[in-house]
Every structure is written in structure tokens, then in C-alpha cells.
Amino acid sequence: MADYDVIIVGAGPVGMTAALDLAQRGIRVAIIEKRDISTPADARCNSISSRTMEMFRSLGFSEEVRASGLPDEHPTDVTYATSFLDKPFVRIRLPSRAERYGQNGRSAPGFPDSHWLTPEPVVRLSQMYLEPVLQRKVQACEYIKSFWACEATQVIDNGDSVTVHAQFDANEPLHLNAAYVIGTDGASSIVRKSLGFQFEGDADLGRTRSTLIRTTELRDKINFRPPWMAWTLSQEGTGTVIAIDGNELWLVHCALPHRAKDFSDLDLDLGIRRVLGVGPDFTYEIVHQKDWTARRLVSNKFRKGRVFIAGDAAHVWIPAAGYGMNAGIADVTNLTWMLAGVINGWADQSLLDAHELERHPITEQVSRFAMAKALEHVEMARGREIPRVLVSKSPIGWLLRKLLGRRLNAMNIPQFACEGLNFGYYYDHSPVIHYDDEQPPSYDMGTATPSSVPGCRAPHFWLPDGSSLYDQMGKDFALLTFSDDSCSSLMNEALHRNIPITHIAAPRPALACYKHNCYVVRPDRHIAWRGNTLPENPGTLLDMLVGASNASIPS
């Protein structure tokens, strides 16, 4: 017998989310992480998408995540200015937590994302504060055994199990065996390398130095509505400032100008002061610093045998729209329920084939969206489009800032209110989704059309009792019906096969996209089948859902 059902290599947000979702499905998990548990998380990701928050809601701690980080009253606006402390010439107004949830706990109107069909709007929260929440949940879970300060060195697929060899900091070896392994161990993934997979894409799209600083002086110098993120543009130096705690912690990105050959040409202190707009008397402490290269790289494969990769181990790209970590959590949201079905015995092994078929095309799509959006900033950050007069107080400078502001506003609302990246993508050509003649609507980074076409995310709505559709669906399959027809044959057959499925009988919502009477929604909230009546032979439909058959199913 294997030591565990699943071993996860890498305990960042993606790995810990995978572990927690597997655990809530009764799966025994080991998670291996080379960092010590006391090592502070860095501030790389600072935005948690709606889809990620929906996953945290299903795990039971979205409120705890939402309450972390910035104070309730701190705006999450995005601004553009010639320096952080200069008056912004662009402001994308986004709500503080108090503004967001001030009206009956529902999203307040008047913001670019107010209309989104979700129980969990986006949260601007640093990874610094997210990881401790996830760590507490992992440490408290009886189904998860964590091995910190332990680095995986080799992954071997034995055919009927997988062995992971690792080593603690004190050189003590660790050897674990499991039915499956998920590598969420970052861009330098030992799991990906063990599988022989290759990154493909664009390796160098720009370089940035990121510095987390601590100072109590900056907040008091702001004489306008404080932003969550501020982009600064000038010929001398461009970058970004992100409020981490709304008080004394600030993440400062200094882009490497096009004139510089490498980071040795960048004066870190001068770059920070120019981006902030402060003089030599301003004091700050460097908490952490990291140089990084913007890339768009996707692994040629996500799976080999019993071993999977996800998150940065499978794809890295420019952090446009905050979608690096969030895409990784979308990976494991797709994978964990499939693994649980196979391990718990109600799904066929072939169900796992659907994971790469579904996620790889979406990863390519999202990475190209992110790259296209970020490249617009890269060119600007290199200083090639920024005339010196931009910072001038003259009428020409004022006019230039106004014209540039219009362009930046139109360019960036889709990035910071990315409805399409959250809700627009769909799975096509999947062997475990029954398609009909209707095509899913197109989407882009900023826009999406609610759709009930199989493969699309089931659009969320609130039930008459005020509860969330997703809360009623729970963590398993859901049969959603808008008619009084009996569904006992399907529910009884599912019970006989131990396939977990919940029936939700609801009044038809106002959403025009729900045109059919019956829908089967998967645990990852994507629609697997729809029709006006259930099939006469429900077993055929259930076979398809769990990867056991490709038989024709009536719509």
C-alpha cells in the first residue's frame, strides 16, 4: 500500500490549495516544501481572482482571506502618474473592502467589476498574507502531512505508484510513495525536469527589480485618494508601487530601462526614489529584493503517467492581471476532483486524460492574453514612448498627460477588471463533456458573456432564499433543474455507483443563458451536460461524466 494517495511537491498557494481540496474529498496527502515553515512568503502575487476566491469559499475560508491585508477603508484603485506622489493623470477606481461589501454583503454598484456573476469578487491581497492562511489550514488538516525544509530531489513513476526522494536541510533523507504526484514546485520544478518536459515560448520580454520596503513616511506624504497600485512613467525611470498593508509595507518594481544592459547598470536607491517621487531625506528599509525576467513559457506537457505539474511548474508569464498564481489554482481546481474520483473508485482512470486536454489550450490562450497586455507596458517601461515633457508643468505636458491618460485608461480597465480571464474561458474537445450544436461565446481579457453551453462555467445566481448557487452545489457534481420533472432515475443510479452528486431544484433565474431545463455541473463549476429532459438511460450520461464511456448521449 502507498504511503499516501497523492504527494504534492511544493507548498506555495497552488500546492496548498490542491492539498486542501484533495483532503476535503477524503484523500490522504503529503506535501513537501524546501522552505522552512517559518520563512516569510514573498509579495509576488497581489491579486486573488474571483475564481480563486470561489475555490477558497468552497474550502470554507474565503472570509478569512478577504479580511486579511489592506485595511477595510483602503481603496484598490490603480493610478498612473509621473511618480507615486505626483497627482495621478489616470485613476481606475476600484472599491475598498468597505465599499465593496457595504450593501448587504453584495458587491457595490458603480465599479468596473460590480456586474460580475460571482459570490466572490476579486480581492487585492498580497501572497505574504495569503500563504499564512493556507499554512494554518494545511497544518490543522488531519488528511495532510507536511514536510517543511525538505527538498525533493527525484521523482520516479513505478507504473503502479510514484516514489519521491527528498532530503531535509539536515541532510536526512526522505522517501515517500503515493498513487499520484502533483508538482507545484515553481518555474525551476524538479518534477517537470524529472519528467523531461520542456518550456516553450518567449524567454525574455523585459527585466524588473522588485524591492519590498518598509517605511512609515510614505503614507503621510499622499495628499489624494491612495491607490492600491500606482504605475509611474518618466524618461528617467518607470515602475510600479503596490500597497501591501496600507501602512508601512510597499512593493516597488523598477523596470530595467532599454538603455541598461543588465541590473548592474541600475542604481537601486535612485530608482526607488524616482519611482516614489521622494528626495534624499526620505528613509526606508529594504525587506526583500528580487530581480526577475518577464517571460511567457508553457510546458509542452502537463502530465506523464501518474505525475502531473501545475502552476509555475507548468507555465510562467508576465504577471498581467495577477493571473500567474490564479492560473495555477485554476489548474488544480480542474485536477483535484478528477484525482479524487479515480482514487475513491467512482471514476475511470481515463478521466485523468481530460485534464491536459482541457487545461493546456486554456493556458496557451491566457498566457497570450497576458503577454499581449503586458508587452504594451513593457515598451512603455523601457522609456521608448515617454518624452521628457511628460513631467513638465507646461500646457504641453498637461495635454500629453491627458492624452496618454485616455489611452492608459482604455488599455488597463480590462487588465484590472478582467472578467474574461475569470469567467470567459471554456473547455472544448473534452472527452468528459457532452457538447451540442451551440458554440460558446467569444471572450477577451476584459469581457465575457454568461453562457450555459457545455464546457463553460455555470453562471452564478442567487437563489430565492438569498443563498449562493455555488454554496448549494457544494464540492461535488450538481444536477441543476428548472422543471418539476422527476430526476430520481439519475440520482438513484449515481447513488448506486457512489458518484457524489447533489440535486438543486430552482426557479429559472433571470439570466437568459439558462434556456434548458436540466444541467449537470462538474465540481469545478463547468457545465458537463444540458438538456430539457434527462436521458432515458442515465447510466450512459454518468459513464461519460466519469470517463468510462464515449457513447452518444441524447441532449
3D architecture notes:
This protein is an alpha/beta fold and about 550 residues long. It has helices at about 15-25, 50-60, 60-65, 95-100, 125-140, 190-195, 215-220, 270-275, 325-345, 355-380, 395-415, 420-425, 470-475, 490-495, 540-545; strands spanning about 5-10, 30, 80, 90, 145, 150-155, 160-170, 175-185, 200, 205-215, 230, 240-245, 250-255, 285-295, 295-300, 305, 305-310, 315, 475-480, 500-505, 520, 525-530. The protein has 3 domains: about 5-70 and about 125-200 and about 295-365, FAD/NAD(P)-binding domain, CATH 3.50.50.60; about 70-125 and about 205-295 and about 385-425, D-Amino Acid Oxidase, Chain A, domain 2 (2-Layer Sandwich), CATH 3.30.9; about 430-555, Glutaredoxin. The chain has 15 helices and 22 strands. A hairpin with a 2-residue loop joins strand 16 and strand 17 (about 305-310). Helix 9 (about 325-345) runs antiparallel to helix 10 (about 355-380). The radius of gyration is 24 Å and the shape is globular. Its cofactor is FAD. It comes from marine metagenome. GO terms for molecular function: FAD binding; oxidoreductase activity, acting on paired donors, with incorporation or reduction of molecular oxygen, NAD(P)H as one donor, and incorporation of one atom of oxygen. Keywords: FAD, Flavoprotein.
Overall CATH architecture of the largest domain:
3-Layer(bba) Sandwich
Helix content: 25-40%
The helix tally amounts to 15
What separation lies between the terminal Cα atoms?
Answer: 42 Å
According to DSSP, the number of beta strands is: 22
What is the CATH domain class of the largest domain?
Answer: Alpha Beta
> Uncertain segments of ≥5 residues (pLDDT<50)?
none
Largest sheet: 8 strands, mixed
Task: Name the CATH superfamily assignment of the largest domain.
Answer: FAD/NAD(P)-binding domain
Radius of gyration: 24 Å
Number of individual domains:
3
GO molecular function: FAD binding; oxidoreductase activity, acting on paired donors, with incorporation or reduction of molecular oxygen, NAD(P)H as one donor, and incorporation of one atom of oxygen
Cofactor: FAD
Keywords: FAD, Flavoprotein
Pfam families: FAD_binding_3, Rng_hyd_C
